[in-house]
Amino acid sequence: MQPTSPVVDTPLPLAVLFQSADLVAINKPHGLLVHRSPIASDASEFAVQILRDQLGQRVYPVHRLDRKTGGVLLFALHEAMNSAMQKQFADGLVAKTYLAIVRGYTPDEQTIDYPLRRDDGVVQDAVTVLKTLQRTEIPLAFGKHATSRYSLVELTPSTGRMHQLRKHMAHILHPIIGDRPHGCNKQNKLFLDQFSMNTMLLHANHLAFTHPQTGDHISINAPLQAEFKRMMQTLFSNAHIGFV
């Protein structure tokens, strides 16, 4: 039976990827909420509180990652930097790339320009650039097919809408493995049954921006975490060492 909530698959304390006098970035585990939320009453641990206790000071998340998404998560260490970095995110000045394992063979490259509707009904422009890094076909029967096909893709959003990457991949019929509710429940069950895998295979692997005060170019990369790495090694026998 499928668990009702994701399991944090990276041990604590949180892995710090970058730290300066006013910023810190962590490799957020899959399954860890950024902060307390009324829609996730089952959670007892949150990145904000864990990092605060780990560093011994207040921290401010300047952007968000979905609970089930792992990877680079940036925090400010004081209010002025929090405001400055939130403005950079809002103005589209922060470069973000993600890795995902999705169903089927994706095109070599594709720009997904598909507006998304918010919960309040407002429709917003949303654009994601997809690049296929690897494809695989494994001897695992699924439905009427004797084999199963998957792709490792790099996703670069130029807008930052809620669940944008998840919705965009579902829209082009290549849902992210482990995604609920936007993904394919039959594929998710297949991965749970065959591989005991219940993580959403979406990873925020790169973040780049200009430091608001010093003008320095900051580039942060997050290594893949345990379950994503295991699925890479399981599905892609020729996985590039740079990803794992």
From TrEMBL:
Domain of life of the organism encoding this protein: Bacteria
A biological process term (GO) from this entry: enzyme-directed rRNA pseudouridine synthesis
Gene3D superfamilies: Pseudouridine synthase (3.30.2350.10)
Claim: Transmembrane is one of the keywords in the record: no
Molecular function via GO: catalytic activity, acting on RNA; pseudouridine synthase activity; RNA binding
Keywords: Isomerase
Pseudouridine synthase RsuA/RluA-like domain mapped to chain residues: 22-171
Name of protein: Pseudouridylate synthase
Species: Spirosoma agri
